[in-house]
Design goal:
The complex is a heterodimer of chains A (185) and B (192). Chain A has a domain of 99 residues. Helices cover 78% and strands 3% of the residues of chain A. The N and C termini of chain A lie far apart (40 Å). In chain A, helix 3 crosses helix 4. Chain A is globular. A two-stranded antiparallel ribbon of chain A has the order 1-2. The model of chain A has no long low-confidence stretch (mean pLDDT 89). With 185 residues, chain A is mainly alpha-helical. Chain A has seven helices and two strands; from the N terminus they run H-H-H-H-H-E-E-H-H. Chain B contains seven helices and no strands. Chain B is 84% helix and 0% strand. In chain B, helix 3 packs across helix 4 and helix 6 runs antiparallel to helix 7. Chain B has two domains: 116 residues, no CATH class; 59 residues. The model of chain B has no long low-confidence stretch (mean pLDDT 87). The relative contact order of chain B is 0.07. Chain B starts with a helix and ends with a helix. The longest helix of chain B has 45 residues. Chains A and B meet through helix 1, helix 2, helix 3, helix 4 and helix 5 of A and helix 1, helix 3, helix 4, helix 5 and helix 6 of B.
Chain lengths: 185, 192
């Protein structure tokens, strides 16, 4: 049943998205592709929409996938499920287990989780970039337009980091990429 | 009742006006919950940021739940968290209804082909910052590199292996390494 699947899928994501907003992206991609809820392009579009609208990225993605699959109730269930683990854990820590996070075993589990999720996010970013630029079906085809746009965006992003000592705002980069897309494709 | 309404409205506003999620929200939460309303102290806020880093889920939700609980127990936590989520929920739900039709417009479809490329670049930007902040010790670096390679292969060959299993394996390996070290340390201590 779709409601139960949505709950389970997003509850899992909510339990494992350690390390900030971006950690949920590979996990949600994984769950959404595994259940066949959206294709790769649609997920990527929605990540961009989630970045450009207010609110936490994983809440936005959960709401979208839920609504896309099962309307308003689906949206409510997916959003509820993605937030539930965080809600329960914070309640437990503040009410009962004030020192749980200082426990050395819990610390060592966390110290294993964080580098792993960083590796996963890095792989996802690299895969997304490569996937736009190269298509491997029968042979290898390079997508020239995508290579040009990728090169421009990467230069802007890293240029901003080195020159301004600050990351470029996601919304600004998304607007630039939209203009480039309209011009080049 | 007035406090509950105030909590709800405050977090609703925070949810409505913070783009991009994550750490972008911290200064705003600090300003409204610590300076303006004095719901929590500055030290609590600092502590909360550390807790949020070690627990799953969006940091904004963690903050809303914590502040709500401190002010009005479980009901407070529920109302604050609900207030925080509701703006995104309404906005994204509305977008989801029209999004497919929207994408059929030629110029929008082209724009999104460009936007698709930006998403990978944005994630790369954030993750390189996370790598910079990571402790540069052998075990975490090896875990990171191994999970990077595995995940890349999973993606390229469309293997049926979830990233969550990968996380569980990494956590287990690190715990075992810790237990072995801890054990040999305590043995060493006993020998003295």
């Amino acid at each position: 049943m779709i409601y139960w699947e949505l709950f389970l899928g997003f509850f899992e994501v909510g339990c494992f998205s350690f390390g900030g907003a971006y950690s949920s992206i590979p996990l949600i991609r994984d769950v959404v592709l595994a259940y066949g809820w959206l294709n790769d392009d649609m997920i990527t579009y929605m990540i961009a929409v989630s970045e450009s609208t207010p609110g936490p990225i994983m809440v936005n993605l959960a709401t979208y996938v839920g609504s896309n699959q099962a309307g308003l109730i689906g949206a409510a269930i997916a959003t509820f499920a993605v937030v539930l683990p965080a809600f329960i854990i914070i309640l437990l820590i503040t009410a009962l287990l004030k020192t749980a996070l200082e426990n050395k075993y819990i610390q060592s589990v966390l110290n294993g989780l964080i580098p792993c999720i960083i590796g996963i996010i890095l792989a996802t970013a690299c895969y997304m970039i490569i996937n736009n630029v190269v298509t491997i079906t029968t042979g290898i085809t390079f997508n020239i337009q995508a290579i040009i746009i990728s090169a421009i965006l990467i230069s802007i992003s890293f240029g901003s980091r080195t020159l301004r000592k600050k990351s470029i705002s996601p919304i600004f980069l998304i607007i630039i990429s939209a203009f480039l897309g309209i011009m080049v494709f | 009742m007035k406090l509950l309404l105030n909590l709800f409205l405050t977090f609703f506003k925070i949810g409505l006006f913070t783009f991009g999620g994550g750490y972008a929200m911290i200064p705003i939460i600090e300003q409204t919950c610590v300076e303006k309303n004095r719901w929590i102290t500055h030290d609590e806020m600092m502590n909360l940021t550390v807790i949020a880093e070690s627990t799953p889920g969006p940091i904004a939700i963690n903050c809303a739940t914590y502040v709500g609980y401190k002010q009005k127990g479980f009901t407070g936590a529920l109302i604050s968290t609900l207030g925080m989520i509701l703006p995104s929920f309404i906005i994204i739900y509305t977008i989801s209804i029209y999004f497919d039709n929207f994408l059929e417009i030629m110029i929008i479809a082209k724009a999104f082909k460009g936007i698709k490329i930006a998403v990978g670049v944005l994630i790369l930007d954030v993750v390189t910052k996370m790598i910079n902040k990571m402790p540069k010790k052998p075990v975490p670096l090896i875990i990171m590199f191994a999970s990077f390679l595995t995940m890349l292969l999973i993606n390229i060959f469309a293997w049926n292996f979830s990233s969550i299993s990968l996380l569980l394996i990494a956590a287990a390996i690190n715990l075992v390494i810790f237990l072995v070290k801890d054990n040999s340390k305590s043995k060493g201590g006993a020998a003295k």
